[in-house]
Amino acid sequence: GVVSDCVVQSGVVESDGGINSIRAGGICGTNSGELSGSFSNGASVTVSNDSASAYAGGILGYSTASLEMNAAVNTGNVSSDSYSGGLVGYGDDVTVTDSYNTGNVSSDSYSGGLVGYGSGTITVTDSYNTGNVSFSFSSSFYCYSGGLVGYGDGDVTVSNSYNTGNVSSAAHSSSCSGGLVGYGFGDVTVSSSYNTGNVSSPSDFDSYSGGLVGYGRSTVTVSNSYNTGNVSSPSSDDDSYSGGLVGDWRDTVTVSNSYARRGYRSSASGTSGSLKTEAELRERATFTNWDFSEV
Prior knowledge:
The chain contains no helices and 38 strands.
């Protein structure tokens, strides 16, 4: 079927308990068809489920079909025990364009200002998040949070987009936080984008925080982008990795014409691009080779 051009001005969408997984969204709980047109949600979405996975999204909770979301707006808070996204809690092959979220987003595992968990290819263009992205509990063994995308199971591309909300994750075993992308399993590419929110990921063991990308398992490429937020990765066993732009990576990282604010807090393990003072980051001359018509 097709769902198109829907508006929810306010209210509460809430689900509690169940044997099977629970999927809830401000517009649609589960999608296996097509979303068309523009969507706007002002209702809060809350999902709690102790026995199975819980999916919550400001627009869509769970999608198994390729998803193109254009001109989508969410202003309600979103929370769940498992997967939470300001627009989409969980989605396959997700494309987000000209969209934004202003609500706070939280979960016990996967949280993203726009997309909580994306499988396949995830593309974010001309979009932003201003809500805080955080963890619901501290009892999880792993937790991933991103200002735009919490966890990308495939390639993630972010362009002409930004986050201003604070991003945090906490877990017993491993936690990853990124100003734009928390964790990328495939290649992560960030261009003409920025973050100004503070980023942290306290953990008992492995902890990864990056001003733009928390952890990239494959190739990470950053160009014409910047971060001005504080970055920290406190860990009880000193396994912490943080950087003004990228916290840590497995294969390779390439950074060009990108900057982090001098004075951010981090370990020496991540990459920060060129460090600049706050005053320098206000000067257009700092950003050499940038096309300001695309920023």
